[in-house]
Structures are given as structure tokens and as C-alpha cells.
Amino acid sequence: MIVKEISFLNFRNLLGEKITSPGRLTVFEGDNGQGKTNIVEGIYLLTQPRSFRQSRLLDFVPWAYRNSSASVLTSVAATVVSGELERSIELRIEDSRRFLMVNGNPVSQAGSFLGQLTAVEFTPSSLEIVRGQPLTRRQFIDRIISQVDRGYFESLVRFHRSLSSANSIFSDVAKRKRVRREAEAELSPWLKIMSAEAVVLVKKRQEFIACLQGILSELQDHFSGDSRRETATLRYSSDFVKDGATLSVNEVASVFAVALEKGFVSGWSHVGIQRDDLEISLTIEGEVGAHLARLTASQGQARSIALGLKLAAAEFMKNSSGTSPIILLDDVDSELDYKRRRSLCEYLMGKDYQVFITTTSGAWVKEHKTDDMKFYRVERGRVFVQ
Ligand SMILES: Nc1ncnc2c1ncn2[C@@H]1O[C@H](COP(=O)(O)OP(=O)(O)OP(=O)(O)O)[C@@H](O)[C@H]1O
Ligand SMILES: [Mg+2]
Q1: Domain boundaries, the chain
Q2: CATH annotation of 1-118+323-386
Q3: pTM
Q4: What is the strand order of the sheet 14-19 is part of?
């Protein structure tokens, strides 16, 4: 996929900017607080309904208009080319409501917007995939697979809806608002849906992780160059995996049945894919053993693993959908040493992704300057070609 044009209207500090012909590799350079991340965030919002920042709709509206009585239109729009097809996609925010448009027509469900523009983003918070809670790793997995597999996204929605219905029954029993025997009967249809969907989801997550591992290992070979080799090993941990294989629907249903008692006492389901995790261990050439990256990786190592996972995810998306996602790299170079930055640049130049990079200093990319690169300077919400 290629983004041919992007425009911003009243989006954070970007009041009216148009980027008419981004390159295959586009760099937004500027001092802190100028609007670089806002640009990348805007593009990202055309791929997913939620921002990678914990933002609410109101946060996107320029501060100057917050208390304005007149209605203000906030919009991020892009022209996207995918194969032979060209389409326009737009996110509009008006009167605290969000509208998604494809070729000028409103699209009602967030799910229908998925896939119009696919992207893999790396931002400072991507480090949380390595350092943070299991939820962050599950979100990483879910967002990537959902972009290329609509069925996965729908299964996920059905699983979580059923889980929340089940949890409200568990909670009622724990608070003695409902009788246990009745509750068991009421839970039964929800657990049936959860068992069936869990098997679909866990299988796809496992396939995704196996695929990621293969690509990640190749990437790490590339990134270590002549330095000591760092190897990240991925393992999916789940209530529904035994000896590396996904349990059957009946087996999953039994796991739910065994955990019922605990659920009635605590008020929530103790098993399910909402507890799964992606374990990442790091082995360093010449050092003893493999260690959990979450606890032991250095800042640069953690950043390299997170970046490796994101780039591997882009390859996964390309292989499974036949279309290259765009890659958004926000502040990717901080904490990476010169060798790693150079390897990253060489890697990106050897691939066919369209890449958007933000940085406070783009010298490391300019060293490799080619005709299909474009450099912009970002200053106080304005974007200038360099
Ligand atoms: N709703 C808003 N209205 C106006 N300005 C906003 C809004 N939200 C954020 N900003 C401001 O936009 C400016 C640019 O933010 P952004 O995160 O894009 O900076 P940046 O160029 O990426 O900087 P850094 O290099 O520090 O990451 C900041 O001053 C920020 O406070
Ligand atoms: Mg920034």
C-alpha cells in the first residue's frame, strides 16, 4: 500500500497541512513538541479506530477550539493506492462524534474500516510490548492479526462480548444477587461461545507467533551484523495450549467447567484467552542461559526486540494478505546505537514498504539518501519540504 497524499485539518496542532507526495521513505524532522508524532498518529488513526496514545476524541480537537460554540471539523484524510485501486479514506470528528469515510461514503462499523489502510507502527510506547503487562502483548497480537483477518476480529469481538456477559453472572453470584444453580444454566450458552471462539483465536495466535519467530530470527541476524548475536525466543502461554498444541473445543469447555467454582467466589472468569501471554526471552551470544526480556533486557535491547517484532509483524501482514502495510516509526532512533540505526535504514531500504519516520535529527537516514526519500521539517504544526 502506498499513501499518495495526506491532509490534516484541525487535528491537534496541525491546523491545515497537506503532504502531497510523500516518498517511499519519508522523514519528518523537527525539535521536540513541533507536531511530528501528531502526523504519525493521524495517519495511524486511518488504520485503526483507536490511537496508540491513550487519547479520547476530544484530545484531537485543537485546544483553541475546545470551548468554541461553533461546530469545528477535525479531519485526517489520505489517498491510498493498493495494487490498481485508489481510494480516499477520511476520519472526521464533529460535535464529539467520529465519522469514517471511504471514497466519500460514510462507513458505519469500525470493523469495515479495518484493512482500508494497513499499518504497523512503532512508537515509544511499543517498548511496553517487551516490558509491560500481558495485555499490551495481547493487544499487539490482536491488532496485527485483525488487520489481515476479518474472521479473527469478529471471533475476538464475540469472545469478549460473551466473556463480559459471563463475568456479570459470576459477579452477581459472588455478590449473592443470583442463585448459583440458575447462574450455571445462564452461563452455559456464553461458555459454549467462548470455548468455540477461544479455539479459533488461540490457533491463529499460535500460527502468528510461529510465523513471527521465523521472521524475527532472520531480522536479528541482520541487526546483529558483526556484534554479539541477540536472540529473542517467543512462547505463547495459554490455559488452552498443551504440549504446544491448541486444545479441542470440548477440552476447552472442560477447562472452563473446572474453573467455575473459582469464578463464583471471585466474581470473574479465571480462565480464558484474556489471560494469555507472549513470553519473550533473550539469549545473548557468549552469556549463560535465556532470560525473560521483560526483566533483563537493556533499553536498546528492549527497543530492538520491540522493533524486530513490529517489522516481523509487517512481514506477516504482507505474506498473509499479499499487500504491504505502511510502516510508521515514531522516534525510533532514540536509544539505538549507530550500528543499529544503520542496520535499520539498510533493512528498510531493502524492502518495499512505504515508511514514515519521525526524528529530532534525520542525519542517520540522510547518509543513505536516495531519490525515493522525502525529508520534511516540522515546526509549530507546519510541515515544510526540505
Ligand atoms: N489538542 C491539541 N491542540 C493543540 N495542540 C496540541 C493538542 N494536542 C497536543 N498538542 C501539542 O502538539 C505539539 C506537538 O506534539 P507532538 O507530540 O507531535 O510533538 P513531537 O514533534 O512529536 O515532539 P517530540 O520530539 O517531543 O516527540 C505539542 O506541543 C503538544 O502539546
Ligand atoms: Mg514525538
Answers
A1: 1-118+323-386
A2: 3.40.50.300
A3: 0.92
A4: 14-19, 2-11, 74-82, 85-94, 97-102, 105-107
